[in-house]
Design goal:
Elements (H helix, E strand, L loop, with lengths): L3 H20 L1 H70 L10 H14 L15 H15 L2
Helix pairs in contact: 1-2, 3-4
C-alpha cells in the first residue's frame, strides 16, 4: 500500500515530466497536433449534425408532400367512383327498355347502349399491358356495335 506522501510525490513527478515534455520541440508539435485533431473532430461532428438535421427536414418535407399527393389522389378517385356509381344507378333506374311497338325503339336502345358504353373502358389495351384474352375484345366490339346502332 502506498502512503499519501508517496502518491503525491508520484503525481508531482508526472506533472514535471509533462511540463518538461511540453517544452521540447517534439512535445510542442504533439500538443499542436492533438489540438488540431480535436478541432477537426469537432468540425466533423458539427458537419455531421448539420447533415443529419438537413436530412430530417428533407424527410419530413418528403413525407408531407407524399401524404398530400396521396390524399389528393384519394379525393379524385373517390369523386370518380361516386360519379361512376351515380351514373350506373341512374342508368339502372331511369332507363326503361322501349316497348316493342315503339317506332323509336332502335334509337332508344342505341341511347341505352351509349350510356352503357360510357361506363365501360372501350379503349384498346396499351402496348405492354396484360391482355385478358379475346373476351375483352369481343365485349368491346359488341358494345361499340350496339352503341353505334341508330
Amino acid at each position: 500500500a502506498h502512503s499519501d506522501e508517496e502518491e503525491e510525490e508520484e503525481e508531482e513527478e508526472e506533472e514535471e515530466e509533462e511540463a518538461d515534455f511540453a517544452t521540447t520541440p517534439l512535445g510542442k508539435w504533439q500538443l499542436q497536433m492533438q489540438e488540431r485533431l480535436l478541432e477537426q473532430a469537432q468540425a466533423a461532428r458539427m458537419t455531421k449534425e448539420e447533415r443529419r438535421k438537413r436530412a430530417r427536414e428533407w424527410l419530413a418535407k418528403f413525407y408531407a408532400d407524399r401524404d398530400a399527393r396521396i390524399s389528393a389522389t384519394h379525393r379524385v378517385v373517390t369523386q370518380q367512383d361516386e360519379q361512376f356509381f351515380g351514373n350506373l344507378a341512374r342508368l339502372m333506374t331511369e332507363v326503361k327498355p322501349p316497348a316493342p311497338e315503339d317506332p323509336n325503339a332502335a334509337r332508344t336502345w342505341a341511347e341505352i347502349w351509349e350510356r352503357v358504353a360510357s361506363l365501360c373502358n372501350l379503349s384498346k389495351p396499351m402496348a405492354g399491358e396484360s391482355r385478358t384474352g379475346k373476351s375483352r375484345d369481343r365485349q368491346r366490339a359488341v358494345i361499340l356495335k350496339l352503341k353505334n346502332q341508330r
